[in-house]
Amino acid sequence: MHDIVIHVLGMAGLLALVSFLPPLAARFQLPFTVLLAAVGVALGAVIQTFAGMPGGGPFRDFVNSLAELDVSSEVLLHIFLPILLFETALAVDVRRLFDDIAPILLMAVVAVFVCTFAVGYALNLFTSMGLVACLLLGAIVASTDPAAVIGIFRDLGAPRRLTTLVEGESLLNDAAAIALFTLLLGMLTRKTDGGAMAATLEFLRDFVGGVVTGYICGRVVCMLVEPVRNQPMAEITLTVAQTYLVYVVAEHYVEASGVVAVVTSALVIGSVGRTRISPTTWGGLEHVWQQLGFWANSLIFLLTAILVPRLLAQAGLEEVGLVLVVTVAAFAARGLVLFGLLPLFSWAGLSQQVSHAYKTVMLWGGLRGAVSLTLALAVTENGRVPERVQSFIAVLVTGFVFFTLFVNGATLRSLIHLLKLDRLNPVERAMRNRALALSMENIRDRVSAVARTYEVDAAVTDVMLARYADRLQAIDRQRLKDPPLRDEDRVTIGLAILVNREEELYYAHFSEGVVSRAVMDLLAGRSGRLLDAVKTQGRNGYRAFEEPFIAFSPWMRGAAWLQRRFGIHAPLARRLSMRFEVLVAVRTVLRELLPFTRDRLARLLGEDVACELEGMLIGRLGIVEQALSALKLQYPDYATVLQGRYVGRAALRLEHADYRAMRAESIISQEVLSDLERELEGRRRALERLPQLDVRFDVGELIGRVPLFVGLPEERIAAFATLLHPRLALPGETIVRLGDRGDAMFFIASGAVEVLVPNLAEPVKLGTGDFFGEMALLTRQRRNADVRAMGYCQLLVLDEKDFRRLVQKDANLRTHFQAVAEARRQQPAQPVPAET
Predict the structure, then answer these.
(1) Which CATH architecture has domain 92-418?
(2) 92-418 and 699-826 share one fold
(3) Where does this protein have coiled-coil stretches (predicted)?
(4) What is the DSSP letter of 228?
(5) Helical H runs in 567-693?
(6) pLDDT band for position 196 (50/70/90)?
């Protein structure tokens, strides 16, 4: 049989076999990875027994094809491993990952080193093998495999935080273990020299180089996906291609860790790419990667497990004893980190406390899998490694991996049940019963409506409704046994629901094309921080969060400073444009949350809690409305443009849906649909561009707003225009500070300010046409009050030097300034209007 046919038969047969294993694993309540390993070993035994025997037929050819498959570690590392790593990292919730980044890094990096040295020195005590070879084995077995553990967690409904800790650890410790393995293998084969410091520096270089390479490649992909937006096949293909490209670039050009680079790029795409890749593609992309990950994990496990009978053929009692040494040392090292070092992080305030039950499951759930077997295979294929060392590593790694799979993996489900981690806590149980009761009521009403629509006999309908009534009564009886929820718990639960619902609504508006990508990025990050505030501080965190968000960021103030100091308008225009769109999006979603709170949350959490939640939403809405009104008053024309942009996006979405419906009904052909979609795409891109906000000022026009200058001859106004400099003050910005040297005075062309005079109960308010700051110039003294903008204020600034030149030439103007200053000194509580 031809070689290519051999390979096709072998791989196709393995995939067909794999397709039957998930239902078998579910039926026997075994982790899928454990069943894969068992089937792989069985296949290996079959191959050892029947391969090469005479005869024909599909089965004999299949066995021979597996025996002739040249599966090397290079194939596994370069073809299957990048896919497996990318799929795992893509599914990780980056926000939750960073919530527990300290314990995850401890387990992913420090634990790898502790395990490596614990196993290495323990083996060195019991064997004559060199220390480097023993340390190399320790690095190989330091990498944990999350596949079996996460599958059990999902089946049993284990706590989300426990799943995140295990996922994050196993995702990052693959990178650390492989980087350490590469370093030690180089030392063993004399490719590298140097002491511990040189080895540490090389490890850090590989790790940091991989992070930087992966981050850059991930961001580049997020930019490159723009030209192929709304082309699902192209977008998904780009992510597949970049997975291999980033691995090769990191390994062979940057000489860094390709594993770290792949993981980092996947985390970037998973967090940033959701708003770069078209919403319709994102769901399909996740499904494609889940399928690719399933194939990669299954094949890499089967192909390595097939080799187990051959690798263990020479194993004896001594090797069994050494496997026990590795097992004890590896789990002792893991226990030391979990129960010894991890509490120090909590004590130092670097992470939230991890319960003993969580740590016990993490200890026993430290299964080893495909990565360890692949690295052991790489050692056996390296001609520079002595055969004695090859056999030593292959046997012990294989024995340890299968011990963790068949002992730890098979009993992990029972351990989780014993520790009651598969049970809901009292608050979760009470919420479950409340939600279930609400669901039963809704379903009962809908069943009744369906029965009426289809004219089902009343007797049949009554039987069905009675079943739901019985279930509802059982739930009510259970609710009576539940301890009552504290008001604080109900409020916190409601706030968490609102924040999650708020983020979902933002993504819904984004998928409909109403919210732009840049705004979605900002709002998604904001929702994550708001949820963190709710988790840590409850209602106080929720209430305190919105005002800082509405306040101006350092970037906004920096843009305002550039505009004020150097006349650079573009950064401020972009920031104000973004602010406008963010405020509109937040206002829209908050209004949608109000009926959700009155209806759904009131029935779930009670009217009292719903009223409090509604009050918080109204408070936030008021802050947003105030900020939006101030911006609209300052830029009414821009507000009109932006609102038209929102409506235009929604209209394009409706158009596209209508065209698709007409194509489905064969009213238009595919060619017509393609032409219409091209036209829509052009209009969508035009709408996607953020409209420019003109913040440049016409000094002459602003001078005309100040009553002091009204009626002056044009030549005088032109002269003033050369002396006055325009400036935009942001709401809440302090324009003048108490105690500063007076270096300018200010005319208010539009807006209002408040003068905070010491020992004065109420601030003095000045509006359009007023001026301030003249007193310090006239008296040559320090400022005697703070002056703060109440909204967006367009100011005209007159520098001290120009002020003195101006009042020297114009006695009437000097007299006016002195009169106003004197009146303000005598009656500071009342603002003095400027004279014309």
Answers:
(1) Up-down Bundle (1.20)
(2) no
(3) none
(4) G
(5) 570-596, 602-605, 607-634, 636-664, 670-688
(6) low
Reported CATH class of domain 699-826: mainly beta
DSSP of 461-520, one letter per residue? HHHHHHHHHHHHHHHHHHHHHSPPPPHHHHHHHHHHHHHHHHHHHHHHHHHTTSS-HHHH
Write out pLDDT tens, residues 246-275. Answer: 999 998 898 888 888 998 999 888 888 777
Q: Give the Å distances, CA to CA, from 649 to 268, 293, 660, 684, 689.
A: 28, 36, 17, 7, 12
Sequence length of the chain is: 836
User: Distance between CA 47 and CA 105 in Å, rounded?
Assistant: 42
Task: Give me the pLDDT at residue 836, please.
Answer: 30
Rounded-to-integer distance, Cα 346 and Cα 341, Å: 9
Cα–Cα distance for residue pair 106/112, rounded to 1 Å: 9
Query: 514-548 b/e with 16+ CB inside 10 Å = b?
Result: bbbbbbbbbbbebbbebbbbbeeebbebbeebbee
Sheet holding 771-772, edge to edge: 724-729, 793-799, 744-750, 771-772
Domain range summary for the chain, segments of one domain joined by + = 3-68, 92-418, 440-485, 493-643, 699-826
Q: Which residue has the tokens 């690095």?
A: 139
* pLDDT for 327 beyond 90: yes
What predicted TM-score, i.e. pTM, was given to this entire model?
0.69
Contact 92, 169 (CB under 8 A): no
User: By mean pLDDT, which of 29-38, 238-247, 632-641 is the weakest?
Assistant: 632-641
> What confidence score (pLDDT) does residue 479 get?
67
